Fold each of these.
Amino acid sequence: MSLRHGLWQDAWRRLRRNRAALASGVLLIAILCAALLLPLLSPYSYYAPDWDHLIEPPAFRGWHFLGTDALGRDLLVRTLWGCRISLLVGIAASLVTVTIGVLWGTIAGYVGGRVDALMMRSVDVLYSVPFIPFVIVLTVLFGRDLLLIFIAIGAVSWLDIARIVRGQTLALRNREFIEAARVAGVGTPAMILRHLVPNLIGIVIIYATLTIPTVILFEAFLSFLGLGVQSPMTSLGSLVAEGAGRMQSYPHLLLVPAVFLAAIVYAFNYLGDGLRDALDPRDR
Amino acid sequence: MRRYLLRRLLGAIPTLLVIATLAFAMLHAVPGGPFDAARPMEPEIRKAILAKYHLDEPVWQQYLHYLGDLARGNLGPSFQYRGTSVNELIAQGLPVDLAVGGTALLLALLAGTSIGLYAALHRNSRRDWLLMGLAVAGISIPLFVIAPVLVLVFALKLHWLPPGDWVAGSLAHLVLPAVALALPYTAYIARLTRGSALEVLGSAYIRTARAKGLPLRVVMLRHALRPTLLPVVSFLGPAIAGVITGSIVIETVFALPGIGRYFTLGALNRDYTLVMGITILYGALIIACNLLVDLAYALLDPRVRHEP
């Protein structure tokens, strides 16, 4: 038995006791593995039609386990590709969000004074900007580029993280170890990257986990409006949008991707809540 | 209080200016204009049209022109709907959005706080688990899945309500869109209320009130309700912004003639003035609602009332 009782050991212990969070984590890993591996093993691709099996319901006799869409494309393979794209967009955009938010918050909190006032005032102003219209316009005007979607979503959702990180930085700023580092002559950039950011990792992980589902839903929203990734490539959002149009006759086209989408978002929310309880136990 | 209000109203002006400038810069930075139609126009006609909409002037002049009009409350002519001004289009669409969005917010507030309080009072019971599981589901299932499913069940299968379209003043046409839009916010507010109620119910003054013999109902309504609602009130700002976004989806699903539809069409057709006008309107709505939320906060919480 280990006698070490650091923050991470404690957090891991608390997380393990939270069954919902643990199950969510396992589910997410399973979906991720399936999304990465299964399309390689399947005889079908996400784009090639199978003319003998147009728009079939789920069947466990043949090879199209979850049926096919109107063009005879395997729904399971397309849904797993959709999971890939949605997870990719979610994780990449959250990285952008967290990077901007953490740097903005730590700089404002650590430097303080007029810089802080200016930076946080601009966050206040940006809070009132209706960003979703802006993102819609951006995607319409610059084409449906996946990279642009990352950047656009990442660039608009960093405000909350910046505020929270600034608050934490203000609390850390007067601690002895920061003062000691300052006396030792550590400059501002090194102070932020070496001493402040590592101490904020807990809160950053929590918010990154909770940002991913919002981003996935937002990408799905764009895809639903026809502004997401372009056919034949697909995402969970565009699959759901396609399915919604045909749900009366072919409910499986809506249900299969909707279940995957809901499961991913559900699991990230539970995992985020669990991580919050594990890493930041003051609340309970 | 009056000075605070005045300062906040003045503070809104630079914010609106930032929004207008961002919208203007973005729309003018992209290649392609609203009159680059597939069918080429006669050069004279093109020139006349560009001159009519001031599109032949240098960009800074167009910008000043736009700001001048904006200050007078004129959002300019629509490029796509010839002969109609953006103001007129907004005046047509906004009542629909206000009806649907307002009803949805009200529903979400009433249902969300009731569910949250109920779950908090029955903490860790089966009913609590069930309600909170449903709430997470409500947050996780996107609006554009919920809305078509509601249409399928209540309009196409049960024939209780119309599947879409809009008849001004008809309650039946309002129900499905408002309920669909309200569901995710109901779920979120329920979770917020439950968490905050548990915190409040655990505090010492509630224990004192219970200890002196007040029944639970009285303690809840007289002592616990106001502090419980504080986080809900501060969530209203983001909720209103979210309802605006949601209304774009709702208008697509239910074929409602609101401004969200004009916005999506305007963005696809490069109707600069329409898109800028609606964006600025959205910004103004968000600013106004945030101000109202802050005022409500001061009314509910005496601790913030005397801050500068």
Amino acid sequence: MMALRRTEEARAGWMMTGPALAAILVFFALPAAASLILSFTDFDIYALADIGNLRFVGLRNYQRLVENPLFWKAMTNTLLFVAIGTPFVVLLSLFAAMLVNSRWLRWRPVWRVALFAPYVTTLVATAVVWRYLLHTRYGLVNYLLSLFGIAPIDWLGSPTASLPAILLFVGWKTFGYNMIIFLAALQTVPRELDEAARIDGAGWLARLRHVTLPAIAPTVLLVSVLTVAAMFQLFAEPYVMTQGGPAQSTVTILYFMYEEGFKWWNLGSGAAVAFLLFLCILAVTLVQLRLAKRGGAI
Amino acid sequence: MMLRRWIITLLAALVALVTIAPLLWMLSVSFMAPGEASGFPPPLFPANPGLDNYRTLFGSFGIGRFLANSLLVSTLATGLALLFTVPAGYAFAKLRFRGRDATFRLLVAALVVPGQIGMLPLFLELKAMGLVNSYAGALVPWLAGIFGIFLVRQYCLSIPDEMLEAARIDGASEGQILRRIVLPILTPIIVTLALFVFLSSWNDFMWPLIVLADQDLYTLPVALAAMSRQHVQDNELMMAGAVVTTLPVLILFLSLQRFYLSGLLAGSVKG
């Protein structure tokens, strides 16, 4: 009787996980693996029409990418987004979390929801809104700056300002999410510890450095890993706000992959880009984990 | 102490105001007359608030069609995702079968791989299956929701085994246990997961952009992006379009935020 039940339990286990596992295999695992194979072929619009035109070309897609200046432009842009955007978003989120976590704050839930709201909005819609907010002549951002005597900035029209402009939008859109994660970590820091340091005469900055940050170090790592991955995957932002311009200053790797694959129908080359993007994310994440291990954060 | 309370609260209010200002501005401009927002200094409120932009959107632009597409795709995505991931999450947590832990470890490892890596082969695969340029094609990625399985598994781990054993001794089949005992317990996490999938599929842009070529099938974000490339000058009209696109999910979030925020923490603990 018992043995019979165990067989039934095992069968139910496979029946309940089966559909999900099959879907993951067919629509996620297989395509991801096929990306590598596709990247060794010259799959293009002719192969799309007739698969007979498909040939294996070895590493030629990769070789051509290395020689393509736009690929390097996309790579540098993306690395800039990662290098500047990650600390910006992490600091912004941490600041917001500390503000909302302050023991002197009234009506905490209200502020928490307000700061989180941008995260659930539709990216394309708010990117459109920000495109107008950042308008050189009629935008609110430049108007606010003008109150402080700052001359109008051509946010989306100049190759040097376009990247900070998109980061401003990305920061606004995503800091609420990280803030919630930071808030949960901050609530585990014992108040007494902070209080003791304060009585000992430690200032705000000293307490942040010696009490709060060590206590939430694993969360800082988690949030930066998530943010790095998100920065590598920017696509809709440049698509809507700048279309990769001006002077290709906001072409990201994913934007480049999209154009390579679905505008020019060079699917082989696009797959090579996808695979390189995966390697980049993996490499940076591993480096972060190693640094954290050495620093004793985890 | 009192002063400190007010300073901190005032600072938070200021930060909150700056944060939601773009959304308030979007709403305000959507009620303005054409060309009104292009003035200096930029006007904050419409002189004669009206619904003309919305009339144009639903009339000559036929945004109602895209709204219906978005509603259909997101509702189906949510239903299908729940159907696939909830039983799987429960089974990974509570049912004993061979290969369970090894399979689950594989899923953990797969979480590092971003979905965009396989987009080009997935497109070719769906093309071969005849699903490109159809709602089904837009739905497919939501069936393979590893995150949902995690979320449900995490929650199921707290169900006491004795409860399931007792049901088994009473002669309930595994399917009956899932339906009658487990699902009622899972209600909060199912609401959370449904909310996650609905909002993510509603906001999703890259995949629908790739897989839906026919304009009649466009979801709101795809339609709005296409519109914004053609109507750069029509500031007020575009703001109304942004409101139609984002207001439904914003309202949904605000009314169910308790479920959303608690689920977000349960999900991030995995890291």
